[in-house]
Amino acid sequence: MNNVKEKILEIKQKLNEWGYAYYVLDDPVVDDAEYDKLFNELVKLEQEHPDLITYDSPTKRVGGIVLDKFEKYQHKVPMLSLANAFNEKDLKNFDDQIFKEIENKNYSFFVEPKIDGLSISLIYSKGKLFKAVTRGDGVFGEDVTNNVKTIKSIPLVIENKDDYVEIRGEVFLSKKEFEKINQQRQLDEEPLFANPRNAAAGTIRQLDSNIAASRNLDAYLYYYMDREKIKTHSESLNYLKNLKFKINELGKICKNIDEVMQHINYISEQRNKLNYEIDGVVVKVNNFDLYEKVGYTSKFPKWAIAFKFPAEIKNTRLLNIFATVGRTGKITYNANLEPVQLAGTTVQSATLHNADFIKQRDIRVGSIVKVKKAGDIIPEIIEPIKDETFKLLSVWKETHVCPECNSVLERVEDEVDQYCINSSCRRKVVRLMEHFVSREAMNIEGLSIKIIEKLFENNFIYNVADIYKLKNFKEELISLDKMGKKSVENLLEAIEKSKTNSAEKLFFGLGVRHVGKKTAQLLVTNFKDIKDFDKISFEQLEKVRDVGPIVARSVIDWFENKNNKKLLEDLVSLGVNTSYLGNIGSKYNEIISNKSFVITGTLSNSRNYFKNILEEHGAKVIDSVSKKTDYLLVGEDAGSKLEKANKLGVKIINEQEFLEMLGEK
Ligand code: IVH
């Protein structure tokens, strides 16, 4: 046992070191495969010895916790925001104010990028990350600890073992991660995030920490105040760096406002080259001992100011508006623009979202439009310039037919989007197939969009069921250009293998409107077999956690459609599995599946051990007791959670009763 303990410790140390090099220093020391191999070894050892799982294990960063709501948390010191400066004059005023307050010119500034994310407060107690709280209204924030623990550049354990250490900074998403997320959302036909800040805020406020874990958030820390030991902001950053936090390297001490301005210009020049968004520069007095003298307004410190970059806006001509159709048939309008340089890139197209967006702004083909990059990434048209020539242009009219198949479009009441409802629309089918074979859905490797298009054009496939008939055309496939024998064999093998997927993958792959991966999972866990969905009522669907009327209606509609019925029959007759396999072998699943549990007190094994059992049986394990909690599993010395459960009338079970529920005793 001791040996295993040492082994685990050694692996953890190594992984933490490698993680630090990769996530904080941005200077990897091993390749991904080597990291993953050791990580998996640790997962295995921890599974065999759950009692040896420790707080700072890198395996703790993978999410897994789903909350009902975020608890409120009162900041010890309010989290203030900053006053803005837009030009040199504003900066001079800021400096004059400081000078007046302290009557002495002997101070310097620290100038650093203003990261475009959301502020976070990290509280460490005795060296362990104890709480991570959003800014909220500045006084009360939300406890988002579970999500923040998934941020790999934030240490779970630090060298400072004081009872209370508070560090503040900014959580953000890199430009690359943001693009990746939006690309996936486009495929899933989910609304796009306007900019990395919205995406980061949306992620940190997810109750399901698996989502945060999948999105690679990052954080720069810039605030630690211990006026006993540390005298300046620049020293505090060095201190944080030594504690292994990620510190922005573009910060610099500046002696006066001229130097401040120079450094602002320097950072501004770097802006487009950075792999994260900044929306300005923060200028702070460097000496902590002047903070109280300089003072505060009710909202802002007077010793710091945010110099905001203006959002770049350019005029260019709108050449054309065209519509595209996505996999659910949703129509999106896009613009072709005369190429224009904007925030570091050449822009020649922009999204116009839906018909209402264009009509509300009276955007016309041929007009000069103002373009900006929303969050400096996605080009967006703000409005047309209504000059003399504008009046001569014709008012834009939406299309009423699909740009691909010419069938009449439908618009669901109360929804802004138009849809192509022709189930054999070429573009729609190709996009749906692309989604069907994707990793999160049926995971059929080797069917790229190019190949799908080729198969479609050569009449091999008309719908997703046809994918499973391809094995009858092996020779023909081989003779299609660029599809060698080996790749055809691999493809057919991958197709066969996908038949045995558990139903949630198939459900997600079918592309039912509003049914994402998580909803598909919830639906099949509850109703077990996709074949039975035509017998399920709207009311039954609505009872499922997280399923609202829109999703329920969409599911009912899909299963009522006769083409879809036929498609499902074909898939079944071709041998594609439609039942949920997640809980095979667990006959006790019914009792606890979909129930929410809170675990408290000391049990005979680690909490993680019980959590794993519960999750394997389809239950949800949450952190805090609320009215919605179904069961509190209590061990010895339970405290406030037990009290709260008693008060709220939550069912309380001990370990013995729990095992009985499982049927194990
Ligand atoms: S200092 C009391 N430094 O900007 C002052 N803030 O508009 C604490 N921000 O709420 C803030 N980068 O979320 C500071 N280098 C930086 C920053 C920064 C981004 C954010 C922060 C703050 C907001 C104010």
From TrEMBL:
SUPFAM superfamilies in UniProt: BRCT domain, DNA ligase/mRNA capping enzyme, catalytic domain, Nucleic acid-binding proteins, RuvA domain 2-like
Domain BRCT span(s) in chain numbering: 587-665
Keyword Lipoprotein: no
Cited PROSITE patterns: BRCT (PS50172), DNA_LIGASE_N1 (PS01055)
GO cellular component terms listed in the entry, alphabetical order: cytosol
Sorted UniProt keywords: DNA damage, DNA repair, DNA replication, Ligase, Magnesium, Manganese, Metal-binding, NAD, Zinc
Entry GO MF terms: DNA binding; DNA ligase (NAD+) activity; metal ion binding
InterPro entries given in the database record: BRCT_dom (IPR001357), BRCT_dom_sf (IPR036420), DisA/LigA_HHH (IPR041663), DNA_ligase (IPR001679), DNA_ligase_AS (IPR018239), DNAligase_adenylation (IPR013839), DNAligase_N (IPR013840), Hlx-hairpin-Hlx_DNA-bd_motif (IPR003583)
Domain of life: Bacteria
PANTHER family in the cross-refs: CHROMOSOME TRANSMISSION FIDELITY FACTOR 18, DNA LIGASE
Function recorded in the entry: DNA ligase that catalyzes the formation of phosphodiester linkages between 5'-phosphoryl and 3'-hydroxyl groups in double-stranded DNA using NAD as a coenzyme and as the energy source for the reaction. It is essential for DNA replication and repair of damaged DNA.
Protein name per the record: DNA ligase
Organism of origin: Spiroplasma tabanidicola
Native organism taxonomy: Bacteria, Bacillati, Mycoplasmatota, Mollicutes, Entomoplasmatales
Gene that encodes it: ligA
